[in-house]
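Input.
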Amino acid sequence: MEKENENNDQVKDQETTPADNVIASPDAVGTRQSAGLSQAEAENRVTELETSLKEKDTALAEAKKSLDAQAADIQSFKTSLEDAVKAYRKQAIGTNQFFTEELVTGNTIAEIDASVIKVKDLLGKVKSGIEEELKNVTVPAGAPGRTGPDTSDLSPREKIKTGLEKK
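Output.
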């Protein structure tokens, strides 16, 4: 039994932590000795570095969560913007009976505004063309006066008959 305890103690002595490996490595020992660090100071420094690493990992995880939340917010804003642009386009189309979905195009408010300006210019040109055409067409001012049927070619008997039929 005593032999087992001695073996366990030897195994425990042989087990090392990552910090022990750094300190126990020949390069680290030389560096530690040249820096004038004692074993306790070196272990304290390793502990400080491990704590700092954990803090930085925690900060990194929080930053990633924040980034994910911001990405979700951005996606939400994009969706809202798309909905607003669609509503703006629909409103622009509704302002004039001659505007159609095919004429008013664009994926941003600026593009829709530019499209509306183009459509207004086009409608202005069409209106001017129609007005110019109407200037060249003459329409009589009023309807011709009401006259009875032409009876000049009728015989007197037919004229009498036509006159009696009207009454």
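Helices lie at 2-14, 18-24, 26-35, 39-94, 109-136, 156-166.
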